[in-house]
C-alpha cells in the first residue's frame, strides 16, 4: 500500500468515524514506527475486516471493488503478466477485451504500477480494487501451474545460461545455450534447478501420477508445489535427470542413486539423485547440497553465541566423542560439516566415512561405504584408523560393531564426531547402552551429546508484531510461564518469503556436556530421565526451552515451536 492509499484510508476513517480517534491515532503512530500497513493493524486489532476496509477505499477513490471469488479468470489472460510483476505490485490480470485490460489491484492508485503495465502490455489499464487475501489466493492458483513453466521458456527475466550442469563421471560442463534450441527439455530441467536454488530448496520432488506430473520444492522443511507440467513431459525430464546423473536410462524396475554438479552464480551446487519405481512410474528426488552453507561459522547457522561457544570449547578437546542426534532433516550433517570446516587446517588429518558423501570438502579425506562389496561403516572405520587420522567423522552409528569401534577410537587419541537417531540428548546414552556398549566405555569416551531440531525463521522483510492466538496458547499446557509478557512476532508474507512469513531456519538445541557426576551416573546404569534431570539442574536447557528462547528473541513463532517440538 503506497503512502497515497494510506492517506486515503486515514482520511476516510476520520470522515466516517468508523473507529475512535484514539484508536486511529494509536495505530497511525504504530504504523509510522513499524512500517506495518495500517490496514493490517486494523484487521489484527479486530477493529475492521479486510473486505470492509477495501469497500471503504473503493468508495473514497471511486474505483470499483471486485471479489475474485465470484469470477473465473482465464489462464491465458494471467500469462500476459509475469509472476514477478504480479508480486511486485500485488496485481492480477482479470480480463482483456481488445486493447483494454481489467486488472485487480490491492493499490489501484499506484501510478508506477499502472504505467509499467501499460508499457508491458500495450493496453489501456482499467483497475479494480481487490483484497490482499483475494490477491494471494488468485496468485497461488493461477501462477502455480504449467503457465509458469511456459513463462520460463519465453521470459527474458530468466537467464538459462546462468546455470551449467555437469555429470559426476565426466567433468565437462554442458553449455545450456548451445543445446536449448535442439533440446528444450534440457532448458526446462536447468531452469527448474535454477529456480530451486534461488528459492533455497533443500529437495526437489518429481512425482508422476496417472494423469498428472507434479514438481515440488522442500523449502525450510516444508514441501510446496512449484509446477505441474503436462504429464507427457515426465518421460523426457526423467531421462534428462538420468543422463546427467550417469544412471541407466533403460532401467525402470529397480531403485537407482546418482549425483551431478551444477555451477550457478559462481557457486558449485551438488545434486544427489534418488530414483524409486512407483505404480505410475519412477519418482525422482534431488537433494540440493550447497557447499556455501559450510563455509560460515556456527553462529551463521542460527546458533546462539552461547551454543557456538559450547561447541568451540568442546572441539578443543584432544580426543573423545561428540554426538549430534535428531530425526532425518534436522540439520545434523550441516552442523557437523560446519564444525569440521572450522577445524580444517593444514596440521590436521581429517577423515570421514559416510553413506553417502553429502558434501565434498577440500582438504578432508572422505570415504563412502559400499555394503554390497563389504565396505561397511565398521570395516571402513577400522581401515581409516590405520591412516593416522586426528579427527574422524562417522556419518551414522547404526550398529553395535560401528559403535564399539567408534568408542574405542575416541579413547585412543582421536576426536570423533557422529550422529544417532534419538529424540533427546540423554537418550543418546541409553541408545549406546542398548547397542551393547559398556557404560564405563561410554562415560570415558563421550564428551557431549546434542539433540537438534530446525525451526523456520520469521522473514526479516515482513516481520511484524502480533498477538499469539488463544488456541495456540492453550496447546502450551503448563508452559505459560515461559512466555509471560513476551512480545510476539510473525511474518506478514511477502515476495521475499513467497508469502509464507518464514525465510530460512534456525537451530534449537539441547546440549548435554559430560562431567564427573554424569559420568558416574552412566557407570551406575541410571536412566536417561535421571541423567536429564541432573543435567538440567546443572544448566542444560531442554529442546523445548531453547526453542521458546528463540521465540522470545523474536526469531520464530510459537506455532512453529509447537509444530516441531512437544512441550513434554
Automatic annotation (TrEMBL):
Keyword vocabulary terms for this entry: ATP-binding, Nucleotide-binding
PROSITE patterns: T2SP_E (PS00662)
GO molecular function annotation: ATP binding; ATP hydrolysis activity
InterPro entries: AAA+_ATPase, P-loop_NTPase, T2SS/T4SS_dom, T2SS_E_N_sf, T2SS_GspE_N
Transmembrane segments: none
Metal-binding is among the record's keywords: no
Cellular component aspect of the GO annotation: plasma membrane
Gene3D superfamilies assigned: 3.30.450.90, P-loop containing nucleotide triphosphate hydrolases, Type II secretion system, protein E, N-terminal domain
4Fe-4S in keyword set: no
Domain Bacterial type II secretion system protein E intervals: 385-399
Family label: Belongs to the GSP E family.
Protein name as annotated: Type II secretion system protein GspE
Organism listed in the record: Candidatus Abzuiibacterium crystallinum
